[in-house]
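Subject: sequence -> structure tokens, single chain

Hey, anyone have a minute? Need the predicted structure for the following. Not urgent.
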Amino acid sequence: MNPTARHNARFYAVQAMYQWEINQTPLNELEADFLVNHIKKKTDLDFFKNLINEVPKNIDELDAQMKPFLSRPINELDPVELAILRLGMYELKHRLDTPYRVAINEWLELAKQFGSVEGYKFVNGILDQAAKKLRQHEVTAHKK
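Reply:
Had a minute. Here:
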């Protein structure tokens, strides 16, 4: 696993999920468009495809898991931050090959890059709380 290629997959996945949320672009068209027109850096394509195909399939589950940690309704969240939260929640829940601290840090950095000025703090708070619930064994082991 190449960390840079994984980071780039997350970078492109944020853009793709934002586009999917805003334009409701069919996933097969979205994936093809990114593979041909947008992905220019070394990227873990399998990871990218997994993220953009599985997040929409699991959207109800992901939203339900983050809802207890939100201070406002999901439909009031910034679309970029919502995309990052859903992707981060998916990685914490379903991609156990990524250590939780790495996942949180990666999504936090992307929130700083793409989100609102203070949005990264919100994203960090939600993903940190989610990690304590979804990866309790890993979080506990790390604190020892």
